[in-house]
Amino acid sequence: MADGELVTFIDGDDWVEPNYVDHFLEIFNDKDVDMVTCGFFNESENGKVKNKIAKHQTSIVGRDEAVKQIIKMTGTVMGYTWNKAYVRSIIDDNHLGFQTDLDLMEDQVFNVEYATVARKFYFDNIPLYHYISRKGSITQKFAMENVRDVGVARMKVYKTIRDSTRNEKDEI
C-alpha cells in the first residue's frame, strides 16, 4: 500500500528516535544506495537496555556482504525490517512481499530476497530504533510451530541465495 519512494517499517509496540526518518532520508539523498540501516536498542518491557551500544560505524557494502550481515544472528543489521529503509521501486519491480505462511523470520526472508536484487547497502549502527522484548511474545516462546517456521524460512533463504548465485553465473 506504500506509495512513497522509500519504505520503512515500525512494529506497533516499538518506538523510534525523533531523527529515525531523517537519518534514512539524508543517507538516501547523499549516497547512491538501495538500503540504509540503523542500529537499535533491545529493551525489556520496563525499559532496561539489553544490548551494548558499540562505537559508531558506517560502511557501504555489496550484495554478498549484505546477505551475510542479514542472516547473521548477531550485530546491528540482522534480518529485521524495522531497522532498515528500502527503495520501493525495487520492491515493486521484483514483486517482493512477506511470506504469509510464516509467523517468524518472514523479515529475514524478505531482506535476503531484497538484497539479492539490490546493488549497494549503507550500514550504520547508530541506535535509532527501540525494539521492545516482551515476555510471552511469539519470538520468546518455544513451540513446534516456531521450529517449523525457522526451518521453512532458512530453506527459503538458502534457495534465494542459491538461485541468485546461479543467475549471476548465467549472466557472466
Automatic annotation (TrEMBL):
Claim: Lipid biosynthesis is one of the keywords in the record: no
CDD domains per UniProt: Glyco_tranf_GTA_type
Pfam families xrefs: Glycos_transf_2 (PF00535)
Keywords noted in UniProt = Transferase
Q: Where are the transmembrane segments?
A: none
Gene Ontology molecular function: transferase activity
InterPro entries (UniProt xref): Glyco_trans_2-like (IPR001173), Nucleotide-diphossugar_trans (IPR029044)
Identification of the protein by name: Glycosyltransferase-like protein
List residues of the Glycosyltransferase 2-like domain: 1-83
Signal peptide positions are: none
Lineage: superkingdom? Bacteria
Q: From which source organism is this entry?
A: Companilactobacillus nantensis DSM 16982
